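Anyone up for a design puzzle?
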């Protein structure tokens, strides 16, 4: 059976074996404010195990080892293919501007020291800059978007059982350039089984695990890359599968807190109500939190979610000025935030609001409106970020190009931000001294507090303890 040609110039090698061995590598090493379970690779491995049970799949996590240990692990595993997942490109924080690309290069070089197997790049971060990262990190192939079925199709094609031209989202070398095959479809039946070794590590250090209930987002926020990665069509995962996964997590590992990592949890009220009723019927002790949009939420829905285990609401509020919300492309207004915050407070559900200060269309007036309106909400925590990270092909990037603020040739791989000229950072910090609410700025280090609370056995996001 033919092995993949080494696109860096080596000649084609031929192997003779019946069952290929794939090693999945989570390259993420960012642990602020706490390490995050490599959910994407667990979905990937679970799907591969179900759809191609003969394929041997191993999983390696860079949050649990260094480069030398990775090389040794790869040498011991002797995989036929290595798929490296790049979760994020940087920390999305204009104050620190920490890029992860150099670190990813170190991971891939460590892999190369341990094997001559083809290296396949993927993950949410990779999908934002597919051709550029394939070249810069010297990968052999890349996959844009969700990788479950595409990875199967790619390996089968490389094993002689299919055509590379039929692989959705495939990026491959073409001399000095790269070819990207557009994604034509998405799967509707992902599956998830948690890895026991990883569960033990992250449950101890993070105090929660993550899981999805749906993929895709129809919203049109000007800065957001999520629809570019996962599509705009919402695909709900089967309710029975979600409940089974949570049951297994509790029965096998004692996991009683999870965070639903959907881009927006409350996209489909009917589905969420069905899930909540199923969780109530199952009788699990599991508590949970999720990202919510502060609209499309009634008192009865929130009460049902709370009965099903909801304890933490994280709102992608971004601003508390209608002027700014419209500029950001948000589908809600300040009145929706105020009403939903009041409903959550009445039920005693913890709430936090994530903000983008100084983004597209922000003015001195809108900043003041946000600060004034913030003080009218029930007790909550605000997490502001300054400016908007500019990603390729977003409405923000296209608008900036149209207005001459950005060139189509500008390098966006290095952290690039748009910040309104009306945002005075020092003035904003000073203004917060009189705020009634708790604002946690990006340069505030809470790691010590989080570690202490984890040692006390506290689970979940923990931001309610810093009010």
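Challenge accepted. My sequence:
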């Amino acid at each position: 059976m033919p092995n993949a040609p080494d696109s860096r110039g080596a000649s084609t090698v031929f192997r003779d074996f019946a069952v290929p061995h794939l090693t999945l590598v989570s390259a993420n090493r960012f642990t602020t404010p706490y390490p995050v379970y490599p959910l994407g690779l667990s979905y990937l491995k679970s799907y591969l195990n179900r759809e191609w049970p003969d394929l041997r799949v191993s999983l390696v996590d860079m949050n649990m080892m260094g480069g030398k240990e990775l090389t040794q692990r790869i040498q011991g595993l002797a995989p036929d293919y290595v798929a490296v997942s790049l979760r994020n490109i940087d920390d999305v924080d204009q104050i620190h501007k920490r890029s992860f690309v150099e670190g990813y290069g170190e991971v891939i070089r460590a892999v190369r020291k341990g094997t001559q197997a083809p290296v396949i790049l993927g993950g949410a971060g990779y999908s934002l800059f597919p051709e550029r990262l394939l070249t810069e990190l010297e990968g052999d192939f890349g996959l844009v978007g969700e990788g479950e079925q595409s990875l199967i199709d790619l390996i089968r094609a490389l094993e002689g059982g299919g055509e590379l031209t039929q692989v959705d989202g495939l990026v491959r070398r073409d001399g000095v350039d790269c070819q990207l095959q557009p994604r034509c479809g998405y799967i509707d039946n992902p599956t998830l089984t948690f890895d026991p070794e990883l569960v033990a590590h992250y449950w101890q250090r993070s105090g929660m695990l993550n899981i999805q209930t749906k993929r895709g987002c129809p919203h049109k926020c000007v800065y957001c890359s999520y629809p570019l990665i996962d599509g705009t069509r919402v695909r709900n995962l089967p309710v029975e599968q979600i409940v089974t996964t949570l049951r297994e997590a509790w029965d096998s590992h004692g996991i009683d807190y999870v965070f639903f990592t959907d881009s927006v949890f409350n996209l489909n009220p009917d589905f969420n109500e069905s899930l909540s009723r199923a969780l109530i019927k199952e009788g699990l002790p599991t508590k949970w939190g999720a990202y919510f949009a502060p609209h499309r939420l009634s008192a009865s829905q929130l009460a049902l979610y709370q009965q099903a285990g909801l304890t933490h609401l994280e709102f992608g509020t971004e601003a508390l000025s209608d002027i700014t919300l419209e500029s950001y492309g948000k589908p809600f207004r300040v009145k929706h935030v105020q009403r939903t915050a009041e409903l959550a407070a009445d039920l005693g559900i913890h709430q936090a609001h994530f903000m983008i200060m100084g983004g597209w269309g922000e003015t001195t007036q809108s900043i003041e409106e946000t600060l004034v309106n913030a003080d009218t909400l029930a007790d909550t925590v605000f997490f502001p970020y300054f400016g908007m990270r500019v990603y390729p092909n977003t409405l923000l990037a296209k608008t900036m190009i149209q207005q001459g603020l950005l060139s189509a040739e500008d390098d966006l791989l290095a952290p690039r931000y748009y910040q309104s000229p009306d945002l005075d950072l020092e003035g904003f910090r000073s203004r917060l001294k009189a705020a009634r609410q708790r604002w946690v700025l990006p340069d505030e280090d809470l790691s010590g507090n989080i570690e202490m609370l984890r040692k006390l056995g506290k689970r979940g996001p923990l931001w309610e303890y810093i009010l």
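A detail worth pointing out: Residues 239-253 form the longest helix (15 residues).
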